[in-house]
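Protein in question quoted in full.
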Amino acid sequence: MNVASLHVYPLKSGRAITLDEVAVTAWGLAGDRRYMVCDPQGVLVTQREVQALAQVSARVEQGRLTLEKEGEAAPITAVFDPDRRMVVRVWDDPLDASLTTPEVDAEISRWLGRDVRLVHADALSHRVCDPVWSGEGVETGFADGYPILVTTTGSLKALAEEAERRGGAGFGMDRFRPNIVIEDERPFADDFWEAIEIAGIRYDLVKPCTRCIMTTQDQMTGERGGPDPMPAMRHTRMSGDRRVAGVLFGWNAVPRAEGRVTVGDVVTVLSERPEGWPLRTR
């Protein structure tokens, strides 16, 4: 097995950047989900509510965030003031984030058609992952819950084939917004992995990833109505453990060291959960 591809999402719910190699930090892959759009009360805004976020690309250079959007001639460049802060929420988790200027907020609000704020999870921000799953002291930025999301090519192939058997169309891995994609022909082998190693770094696969309506959205436009993975997942990937309810694809992972990961790196399974993750049978 080896690393097939690497992806970061500097702006949460924005477009992916695909990389050949990237640093691994305690928070996850460097540059991943460090910026976020929220409402004026600090509540996360995603593609679920604002599909146009899928049309926004982000890059960071010399401490400046540059955003570009389909149909907009001029980019937005934002800097963030560590002394201007607000408490924001990612699902049930509060964290303190830095703010940009009102002018930048006004422009991105115009882009998205609603009043929003652009915020940054900086060095002063702290968000602790659920220790029941990750262990004590694990932090992340604006990721859904844990530092890294791992998927496999064999799982995607099996799910797409199930969708086609059910009369649907195929879809790409981009629908699942992973960080590390592993080349492995076995379907859902990751259900049995407890820990893996890549380039000397141990990753504990701590919790399966539940999936939502974003998997039905085109990741370049945000539009719904094209290939839909949900019927196949509901048929074959419904969790059988009440602690993690819903349909599953991929695993949340915690790196236990820092370093680098590169496309092509060998992936070694360090330990397994012999029974796998329980699924409902139909």
